[in-house]
Design brief:
By secondary structure, this protein is mostly helical. It has one domain. The chain contains four helices and no strands. It has helices at 6-30, 37-58, 67-88, 95-121.
Length: 122
């Protein structure tokens, strides 16, 4: 796949951020936590930081819609860094949460890339 243009990279980064915020919003709603901007931001920031780390490690701007390696690196960093930051700040990291967060973010962060790749191949 050729190197992506800046517009594609910006849209991909925005898509990743939206996916993380959607994941956190759904989680807060399912646990009857408030759906305020502050509450969502409090839940999302560790995962958004992980997404940023993944973008840097993978140099995601080069191939932003690639499922492998970009999507995989962004997803893994989102979960690992997100959970480490949650643990460091006294937020929950129960095993069941780690499993649900891993599966949900995989579907979101890898899924939009798979869809975009399929559309771009047509």
């Amino acid at each position: 796949m050729p190197k992506a243009d800046r517009s594609t990279a910006v849209k991909a980064l925005a898509a990743d951020a939206v996916c993380v915020v959607v994941f956190c919003t759904i989680g807060r709603r399912s646990h009857a936590e408030g759906l305020t901007v502050a509450g969502i931001a409090e839940t999302a920031w560790p995962f958004l930081a992980g997404t940023a780390v993944g973008w840097l490690l993978a140099q995601a701007w080069r191939r932003p819609i690639a499922v492998i390696p970009t999507g995989l690196a962004v997803w893994l960093a989102t979960v690992v860094v997100g959970m480490l930051l949650r643990k460091a700040t006294g937020q929950g990291t129960a095993a069941s949460f780690i499993v649900v967060a891993s599966l949900t973010t995989a579907v979101l962060l890898l899924g939009w890339r798979a869809g975009a790749r399929a559309v771009s191949r047509r």
